[in-house]
Every structure is written in C-alpha cells, then in structure tokens.
C-alpha cells in the first residue's frame, strides 16, 4: 500500500543555499590545504625533487594586507554567489512549487486510483476464488449437460426413426383411406342393394312364414282328414268322436281312453252349440259326473267345472237326481239347454274328445 501522507514541499529544498555555502567553504579550504600539503608530501616522497620543485611552485610570500584583501574578496564572491543561489532557489521554488503541488495531487489521485484498483483486484481475486469453485461445479454440470445431450441425441435419433416409421405407416394408412373412400363411394349403391335385399328377405321371410303356415295347415288338414277317416270331427283345436254304438257311462269312458281321449267336456257356449247340433236330438253321454264324490259335478278329463257358466246348459229342472241314482250327464235335446242327469248304468251313445296334437313331420 502506498502511504496516504506526502509532504507538500521537501525540507531539503530550504537548506539548499546553506548547503551550497558550506560546500563552497569546504572546497576553498581544501584547495588551500592542498597547496600547503603538496610540498610536505612531495618532500616525504622525494626530498631532492621536492626541494627543487618547491622553489618553482611556491609563489612568493604575500604580505598580511594582501592576504586579508584576498580573503575579503573571496568572502564577497561567496556571498554574491550565495545570494544568486538563494535568488535562483526562490525563483525555482516559485516556478516549481505549483508543479510540485499538481504532481503531488496527481500522485495522490494516482495513489487513490491505484488503491481502488488494488481493492478491486483484491475483490476480483476473492471473486475469482469464489468463482473457481463455481467454475468447477459448472464443469461438472457441463459434463452432466453433455451426458444429457448425448442421451437426448440418442432419443432424437430414436424419435427420428419412429417418425420415419410413422410416416411410412401414415402413407400406408393414406392408401388404405383412399381404398376406404372408394368403398365409401360404393356404399350408397350397396345400401340400395342391401335395402332391396332386405325387402326381398322380408318378402322371403313372409313367404317362408306363409309357407310354414300353409305347411302347418296342410299337415293339420292331413291330420284332420286322417282323423275324419276314423270318424273324428274337428272343432277349434279338438277332435270329437260321435259313437255309433251305445254303452254305459263307464264303458264309454273306457272306450274313449283306448282312443287317447275322454268323454267330452264343455267349456264354452260355442262348443255346446257344436255338440248338440252334431247330436241331432239323440242322447249322448258327456264327461260330466259326480260319481264317487260328495255330490259335486266334475269333468272326467280334469277340465275345471264352472258351475255358474254350466247352469244355462241344463234342461230346466235338471239335474234332479231322480231315485238318487242319476250321477252322470248326457245331451238329451237339440238346444242350448240340453243337459240331463241319468243313471250311469244306462246305455247311450257317447262323445269322445281329444285335443289336436300335430303329428311329427
């Protein structure tokens, strides 16, 4: 560090005239001593030669007055010289003092600048030391970044490969889409053809259904004709057999069972009308009985007996159970109200009934 205190004027500058005076006096004294010392020295070195030279070199001795006068002249010259030197020094000081002040100010300024620079350099040195660790860490980070960049480059290469493959697939899909567009253009025509085909299919299904129905009807008709050839009558899903021989009620039931049937039951007015019309006023056993029961009528084929509905099918006043032995019913008249109770041991014609079951194809 440079010192911050600099003397404005060097102290030696004021002592310059005195120093010059002393130097002048010492110089004069030394010259005179030299002149005085020369003969003695020469005599010591070479006495003979010194003796001869002393007569030649030594001036003639001076008197006391001339010696005083010479000394006065010497002192006066010295004073004049010192005065001139003093004036020159004062003049030089007057000229050089502002320059010294400016120089000192510049030196101070430069010192301050240097000091600030030194401080800055110190700060920079500390900063450099601090940044050195950061640089090392940055170097490690750079290495990591480079590794990451390498990894990213490899990923980019893979992505580029994937993009190329995707582009190839896109081209393939584009070709496929073009084919799809062509097919889409054909769709309306195909749709019309499909609609026509659907309509035709519906017609075919209708015809198929009609054909099946016709087939069923033909089969049913065939079954009916076959049953009719055996003496059976067809009415609303049932076959009825009107016998030509008379039997007791029990024997008639046995005969019907041998033909996979039972004595007929009546479940509706239309069926009652069909039966009495086919009977033609003749007596026919039907499957209504109360034999073996506690006086309740029932159908022998296990059809539920509707007492209220069946009440309008009895002849008025029937059933009367004459002789307490009339436990079976028959059709007696050719009218809606045609039922009559009679003894089961009587022999009458009989009507068998079996449901129509389509035969196997």
From TrEMBL:
Keyword annotations: Coiled coil, Disulfide bond, Glycoprotein, Lectin, Membrane, Signal, Signal-anchor, Transmembrane, Transmembrane helix
Cleaved signal peptide residues: 1-29
Top-rank taxon, per record: Eukaryota
Positions in coiled-coil regions: 149-200
Pfam families in the cross-refs: Lectin_C
Location (main, coarse): membrane
Keyword Transmembrane helix: yes
InterPro entries assigned: C-type_lectin-like (IPR001304), C-type_lectin-like/link_sf (IPR016186), C-type_lectin/snaclec_domain (IPR050111), C-type_lectin_CS (IPR018378), CD209-like_CTLD (IPR033989), CTDL_fold (IPR016187)
Transmembrane segments: 72-100
Membrane topology listed for this record: Single-pass type II membrane protein
Residue stretches making up the C-type lectin domain: 235-353
Localisation per UniProt entry: Membrane
Any one cellular-component term (Gene Ontology): membrane
SUPFAM superfamilies for the chain: Bacterial hemolysins (SSF58100), C-type lectin-like (SSF56436)
GO MF: carbohydrate binding
PANTHER family associated with the record: MANNOSE, PHOSPHOLIPASE, LECTIN RECEPTOR RELATED
Assembly: Homotrimer.
Identification of the protein by name: C-type lectin domain family 4 member K
């Amino acid at each position: 560090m440079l010192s911050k205190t600099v003397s404005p004027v060097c102290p030696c500058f004021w002592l310059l005239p005195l120093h010059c005076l002393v130097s002048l006096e010492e110089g004069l004294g030394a010259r005179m001593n030299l002149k005085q010392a020369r003969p003695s020295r020469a005599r010591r070195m070479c006495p003979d030669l010194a003796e001869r030279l002393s007569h030649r070199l030594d001036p003639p001795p001076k008197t006391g007055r001339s010696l005083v006068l010479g000394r006065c002249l010497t002192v006066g010259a010295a004073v004049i010289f010192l005065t001139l030197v003093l004036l020159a020094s004062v003049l030089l000081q007057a000229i050089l003092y502002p320059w010294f002040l400016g120089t000192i100010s510049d030196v101070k300024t430069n010192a301050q600048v240097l000091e600030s620079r030194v401080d800055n350099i110190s700060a920079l040195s500390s900063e450099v030391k601090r940044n050195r660790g950061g640089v090392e860490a940055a170097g490690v980070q750079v290495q990591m970044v480079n590794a990451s960049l390498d990894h990213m480059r490899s990923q980019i290469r893979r992505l580029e490969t994937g993009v190329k493959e995707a582009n190839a697939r896109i081209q393939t899909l584009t070709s496929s889409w073009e084919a799809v567009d062509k097919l889409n253009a054909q769709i309306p025509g195909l749709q019309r053809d499909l609609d026509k085909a659907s309509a035709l299919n519906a017609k075919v299904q209708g015809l198929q259904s009609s054909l099946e129905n016709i087939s069923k009807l033909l089969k049913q008709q065939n079954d009916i004709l076959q049953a009719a050839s055996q003496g059976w009558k067809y009415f609303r899903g049932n076959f009825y057999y009107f016998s030509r021989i008379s039997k007791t009620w029990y024997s008639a039931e046995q005969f019907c069972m041998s033909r996979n049937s039972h004595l007929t039951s009546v479940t509706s007015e239309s069926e009652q009308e069909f039966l009495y019309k086919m009977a033609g006023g003749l007596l026919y056993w039907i499957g209504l009985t109360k034999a073996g029961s506690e006086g309740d009528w029932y159908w022998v084929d296990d059809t539920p007996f509707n007492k209220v509905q069946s009440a309008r099918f009895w002849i008025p006043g029937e059933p009367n159970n004459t002789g307490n032995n009339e436990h079976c019913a028959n059709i007696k008249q050719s009218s809606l109200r045609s039922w009559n109770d009679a003894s089961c041991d009587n022999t009458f014609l009989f009507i068998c009934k079996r449901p129509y079951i389509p035969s196997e194809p």
